[in-house]
Design goal:
The chain has 347 residues and is α/β, with parallel strands linked by helices. 57% of the residues lie in helices and 10% in strands.
Length: 347
């Protein structure tokens, strides 16, 4: 097996010995184990003759442990191996599944995820709900259709190993950031179905469903703040102009207010989205042309929606604008991510 196995570990028990033994029997010649600040070194000492054991002086988090191993691998084994496969140290990944994910790298895939089936009976509630919510957020906000976003079984080519070495994140959010980085650089994600194993209701897991979920979703919130900020600017200017232009004909009042408000807010939104949110490296002129094509279409839809519903329902324009622009915001986000600011760079 021309793939290096990497095992991040914190306070392991005898299951770590079983994982290493199974990997050796399956033909993995290179195994890197990262001790992420464990107090008891007993099991690391036992396996130290069979694999490379790296130590953190204190607990730095799973993400840091993974990057420590990636750096060590790239410096020592990348010339003789085609890639790496990450596995957990608690024996929750069947050796056949680890081997299957490793084979996919040899079959020229760059990024492979071992995905579990969360519809099965016996899945711990926190794991079932956490994964379903995160999977939905990834599809809705990031355009990444992954059925198991939190899987620890994942394999990388050498190119991806180098790419993810710079990916931010020190704890469980690092695994989430890997998916976002793959999307950004056009890396196709291959999903391989694996067994769904939870030992002792997953009591040994160091994943905190509250604290680590906050850390995970924090990286996704950057996609929203710029749009929300520009929406506030747009709504404020629109409301002010509706008041100032209250004596003119209704259609002209709404049209003028919409155009002026959207012109101001859209320019601020363009700068924020390009430089801070999507961090697009595409040319300014090309991005601006696409952005304002979308902006004009969105402005006309906003005007038509608000004016049409005002005539149809008789509601005040301000109330209808909130509804119409929220729907347009969701549509616009998808288009901006996939067309306006999509980076063409691929590894």
């Amino acid at each position: 097996m021309n793939i290096c196995a990497i095992i991040p570990s914190l306070d392991p028990d005898e299951k770590l010995l079983e994982v290493v033994s199974s990997l050796k029997e399956k033909g993995f010649e290179h195994i890197i184990v990262v001790d992420d600040g464990s107090l008891d070194k007993h099991y690391f000492n036992i396996i130290s003759k069979e694999c490379d054991v790296l130590h953190h002086a204190k607990n730095l988090g799973k993400g840091r442990a993974m990057k420590t191993a990636l750096n060590y691998y790239l410096n020592n084994y990348s010339n003789e191996c085609s890639g790496i496969v990450f596995a957990d140290s608690d024996n929750q990944h069947a050796i056949e599944d680890i081997y299957a994910c490793a084979l996919e790298i040899l079959n020229s895939n760059q990024f492979v995820l071992g995905t579990r089936d969360f519809s099965l009976e016996g899945i711990p509630l926190r794991s079932r709900l956490g994964n379903k919510i995160t999977a939905f957020v990834f599809r809705a906000l990031c355009g990444i259709d992954i059925s198991d976003t939190q899987t620890g079984l994942r394999a990388l080519s050498n190119e991806c190993a180098m790419l993810f070495l710079d990916t931010p994140g020190e704890r469980f959010e690092y695994e989430t950031n890997m998916l976002l980085e793959a999307k950004k650089h056009g890396v196709e994600i291959k999903q391989v179905p694996i067994r769904t194993i939870y030992l002792e209701e997953n009591k040994k897991s160091h994943f905190n469903p509250l604290l680590d979920s906050i850390s995970i979703y924090k990286i996704l919130l950057k996609f929203l703040w710029a749009s929300l900020f520009s929406t506030v600017i747009d709504f404020t200017v629109f409301a002010l102009l509706i008041f100032i232009l209250k004596d003119i004909e209704k259609s002209l009042q709404i049209f003028a207010s919409t155009v002026i408000a959207r012109s101001i807010s859209s320019f601020l939104n363009f700068l924020a989205n390009k430089n801070l949110v999507f961090k697009s490296k595409n040319g300014l002129k090309a991005s601006m042309a696409k952005y304002y094509t979308l902006c004009i279409a969105q402005m006309l839809c906003s005007y038509g929606g608000v004016y049409g519903l005002t005539l149809l329902l008789g509601f005040k324009p301000l109330v209808l604008k909130i509804i119409v622009d929220f729907i347009l915001f969701l549509i616009s986000f998808q288009i901006q991510r996939e067309w306006v600011f999509k980076n063409g760079k691929k590894i």
